[in-house]
Amino acid sequence: MPRRIGDVEGRDAVASVVRADAAASVDRTTLALAVRYTLQLLAERAPGGTVEVRVPPFGAVQCIEGPRHTRGTPPNVVETDASTWLGLATGSLAWGDARASGAVHASGQRADLEGVVPVIDAARLA
User: Fold this and answer.
1) Class of residue 110 by CB neighbours under 10 A (exposed 0-12, middle 13-18, buried 19+)
2) What number does CATH give the domain 7-114?
3) What is the phi/psi pair of residue 17, to 5°?
4) In 3D, which of 7, 53, 15 has the Cα closest to residue 31?
5) Which pLDDT belongs to residue 124?
């Protein structure tokens, strides 16, 4: 199991991305840390193993209570890029808008993060 990212370290990385106003404007290490930290928050906020949330190449977590997936391709997958994920995680992008735009690929009956994201309040980071 990977080490838990500390709140100060994680919040600082997310704040750097928010201040830069674009994931492409921060260095890769900071971007990776911000993504991994917010995925960690998601897994803590909605523990479980029903949905796998993937943000390649930075990380993936299983979350949301229900039947646990153990082998092969999970039946419920949410996948997106780092910029879209951080928008969802911080509340600057709504789940419905991300789905409608095609920026999020969600497959499976339970692959829905409505009401689960955002996981961190971007306004409190500034």
Assistant:
1) middle
2) 3.30.1050.40
3) -70, -45
4) 15
5) 81
Mind giving me the DSSP string for 87-103?
HHHHTSS-HHHHHHHT-
- Enter the pTM of the model: 0.92
- Residues 35, 88, 11, CA angle at the centre, nearest 5°? 45
pLDDT in tens, 30-76: 999 999 999 999 999 999 989 999 999 999 999 999 877 667 777 89
Other C-beta atoms closer than 10 Å to the C-beta of 113 total 23
d(CA 90, CA 21): 12
More confident residue, 88 or 66: 88
For strands 77-80 and 59-63, give the pairing.
unpaired
Q: What are the sequence ranges of the domains in the chain?
A: 7-114
Sheet order of strands, 104-107 included: 59-63, 51-55, 77-80, 104-107
Phi, psi of 104 (to 5 degrees): -120, 130
